[in-house]
Input
Amino acid sequence: MNARLTSCSRLHEISRLFFLLLSVSLAAGAARGGTGEKYVMLLGGNWEIAGGLPSNAMLISLQGVANAGEPRLYFRYPSGWDYNFCDPLLAYYRSSRGMRFTELASAAEALDSLARYVKGYVVWDRNVRTSLVVAFTAAGIHRAVVVTEDLIPLAEGHGLKMAEDFRGKFTGWSDVQIYEWAYGKYWHECNKNFLVYMGGESGNMMKPGIADFGIHHRCFFTDASTNPLDTLEYAFAGRLFGALKPLSIVLGWHSYKKDLEAQHVTLASHFGLRVEGLHTLPNMSFNHQIPLSPGFRFRNNHNVREGKSYVPEKKVYVACIQTDCLGLGAWTKPGRGEIPYAWEVTMNWSWLAPAMLQYFYDMATPNDYFIGSLSGPGYMYPKAVPPALLPSVVDTAYALMKTLDLNIFEIMDHSSYWSSRGIDDDLSKEIVDTYFARMPDVLGIANGYRPAHTFAVYGDKPFMSYDYYLGEKRDEREAAADLEELANLNPARPYFLLMHVRQWSDIKRVKRILDSLGPAFEVVPLDLFMKMAGRAQTFMTRFGPPLK
Amino acid sequence: MSRSIRILLPLILFSCGLLFSGTFFPGLSLSGPAASGGQGLEGIWKFLPGKSTDIASWGYSLPQIDISTADGKVRVIHDWLDRGNVAFADTFEFRPGGGEVTSVVRSEVWPDNWYMGVLSSPGEARNVSGRWLEPEKAFRVVARQNVRTSQGETAVTTTRDYTLGPEGKTLTLTEQRSSRPSPVVLVFERNGTSPRSDIK
Output
């Protein structure tokens, strides 16, 4: 046990050192000339191989290479992109950092301005989609842009030389054959702190928003399946994951065609890796290099005052948590600030994109309350994390919470979800014990995605699972009826009803639903909710089965 | 065979024919005209989401109803289809107008609403009774069972009315839970005969 703890502590220290070095790198980046000329461009909205993908992929690879040493190129993404904060963040950079940008109107203009930072080009094969995934890896190694055959004249017109040519090379190869080849050729030169999953959409399209960061950091790219039934790709994915140190980052997202989110995160968690989605996360090679404002400290909007007593009434208390990370949905939509609302913070942004996270803290209204997530220092499943690693996972998450002034944490575990009909979000007592033991200052911990059934109180700190999941398409009257029915099925008062709001719901809609409920209901800030729930437990203590 | 039986035989056979066609005891058959044309309550019913209350079903599965009769009992199977395959099946069986039938709950799945923190209680009893509201056109099933919520166990009574639509082409299921302020109304269209039916 002592050896385990020592090992965990060492891992935690290594992790802290890693963050420190990255922070130093960030500061150095800013010091190296973060005030140089910057460019902005609106990307086209077509991401099909036969359409706009070749041009967009070239531009994103250009961004990854050109942003080396200094943030130079920022993209505005088209409407409908997963992350909808590109324009507000750009405005924030302009106003808070005094950044000035030159507008670029075309790929040719982008190369005119930035080709001097590029050392060559890699040709990918339109007929073999996976060749683009490998081309991103090669682009990072060669400091190159990725092009299709028709874009070669444009690249050469800007003085670039061919670094690799994948035309016809992988014809007839399976994905695993292609990835094995890429592994043999590039892995030894790749960054071992990050792995990029270029998954998401499949078939005739790709949305490689995260590729700039992967190229910037010379990462290995793949979309190898993590479905155990896909034996060869699963083995390959396991080999990649196993070659990374625990707590390394798996950026991007799984392939919607090949496997499931639950399988992807489960396999990563088996190796103690943290998943940091999505494949569409934009501009990270730029955002990564913008430091916090001088003297800025992350401060949350706390509602619970030390030493004050909070006595619940005979009511139904509702607290809302918006999940699936900041920036995917409601943050920029109408209604934010009108009701108390808790937001999952993507905690690694504190060092991956500090100014971007500062933007959210700066924009927060008094009703916006941030919480730590998701299960660890990144997206992980605690039931899949090796027990010996879990303490270091929790410690690293807790350190990030301290930095970000967070005192409520959230866990989600779907490691056996798809084989248990969706009723296995529950956690064993030993896992819950570990979180509370190593997060001594939290006010409480939330759990689940759809409703879960683990509830407990440690001292006066509750462990609360979601009692309701508000889907973005749920009819508003039926959602209100659901909440009233839950209140009838849980007759003791106070009743603490924790609600997960799926990210695509805007707060106006949530408020309409909550406003339609009777006076017995009261929406409260999450920290107050936890404080009262820990004091007046009306829920049954229940844990999931012990770990096998 | 005695002479008297031989004389009465045509009458006995005629009576049996009436019995099995449901004319004498409509409670024993839902098919009535369905025996020849399939326009009764018996059969498989396909969900029409556009005409129904918005549902939050388990795993986004879609309901299908299979109604059949056997041995004087009515059997209603709520299938929950995931990509066309039955992911979960919930069966109610009762004798119309008879007493409550008790069965044992086997799964934690409470298929009616996936968004609410409610589970069934495996190992516990579910009591089901049913009766005709209008012979061959509408019947009511009442089910009592305990469910598990964050505050523990609580009893729920669910009343389900199955009503045949005009010309026998649609089926409307009106479901009222004792805990819910408003009914859930689900509409189905006929989608073939039940393979589980003993009366074709």
